[in-house]
Each structure stands twice: as structure tokens, then as C-alpha cells.
Amino acid sequence: MNLENLRIIVDERERKSGIPELLKSVGLNLEMKTLPIGDYIVAPETVVERKSIRDLMASVFDGRLFDQCTRLKEHFENPIVLMEGNVDEIEEIAENPLIFYGAISTVVLDFKIPVIPTPSATHTAKLLVSMCSRKDAPKGPYLKK
User: Fold this and answer.
1) What are phi and psi of 29, to 5 degrees?
2) CA–CA separation, 13 vs 34, rounded Å?
3) What's the CATH architecture for 3-132?
4) How many helices (H) and strands (E) does the chain have?
5) Which of 108, 101, 73, 103 has the alpha carbon at shortest distance from 87?
6) Coil, strand or helix at 132
7) If I label 82, which of 18, 45, 54, 145 is the partner at 20 to 30 A Cα–Cα?
8) Closest listed residue to residue 46, CA positions, set 58, 37, 56
9) pLDDT for res 135
10) What is the C-alpha separation between 7 and 71, in angstroms, rounded?
């Protein structure tokens, strides 16, 4: 597959994750910009919100998670929450892991947003490439708003 014809729009704040460099290294075209919603736009109707396990927990407790889910659903037909890291960390981070699992259940059941786990940035990059390289994903530049 020729990845040079594929494009992902990446939020500027994702640079420090290392994922944009991984995507570039396999030949994907990236458009870096500050996105108001989500972290990766892999197709016109598909946005990915990437969260580390720790950030996911923090966003549950400060109320950001459900607000982000509401905005993702308002603006994209296919929002996805990507949960990156070792799920065993939840036991270390949260006094009550049921709060974490309750929040994940709410995202999946109430917001109808899939939550996809990946163990690392490398696996996240591979998942993003696979989403972008689906036959229904657009080729070349898009979302130039």
C-alpha cells in the first residue's frame, strides 16, 4: 500500500507523544494544526481522541471526558476514544477502579463512542495508519477549513 497518498490531520499538542514522528516515518502525510476537538482526524467523519490511562483518569475526575464526548459526537459521525497504556495502571492510579470502568461504560453505552485500547505509542500509530488506509478514507488533502 502506498501511504504517501494518505493524510491524517494531527493536533499540534500531540507532537510530544511521539506519534506524529512514527506516522511520518512510515510515509504518511501529516497536516499539523491546532484542532478544537480530537487529536487525529483520519477521515472527514472520523476523529480520534487519544488519552493515556493517566489522562483518561484525570479527565474523568475533572469532568473533561464527558464534555469532550459530547463535542466529538456533535461534530463527527465516527468519534473514537483511544486509550493508550497499560490498563493495570488503573489499580495504581485510582482508589476505586470502578469509577474508571463506569466512565468507560458511559462513553461506550451512553455516548455510543467506541473505546479502543493500545499498549503504546507504536501500536497507536499502527492503529491510526489502519484507520486512515481504509478504502473509504479520503486520499489527499481534505478538511481545509
Assistant:
1) -80, 130
2) 7
3) 3-Layer(aba) Sandwich (3.40)
4) 6, 6
5) 101
6) helix
7) 145
8) 37
9) 55
10) 23
* Amino acid at the residue 80: I
Q: Which amino acid is at 56?
A: L
The pLDDT, as a whole number, for residue 93 is 85
Query: What does the block give as the cell for 25?
Result: 516515518
Half-sphere exposure of 60 (CA within 13 A, CB side): 22
Packing angle of the helix pair 97-105, 53-61 (nearest 10 deg): 90
Amino acid 76: pLDDT: 96
Report the distance separating Cα 145 and Cα 127, nearest Å.
25
Q: Where are the domains of the chain?
A: 3-132
% of the chain exceeding 70 in pLDDT: 88
| 3-state SS assignment for residue 62 | coil
**CA-only gyration radius of the chain, Å:** 15
The cell numbers describing 126, all together, are: 499502527
Closest CA to 92 of 58, 54, 64, 124: 54
Please give the Cα distance from 145 to 141 (Å, whole number): 11
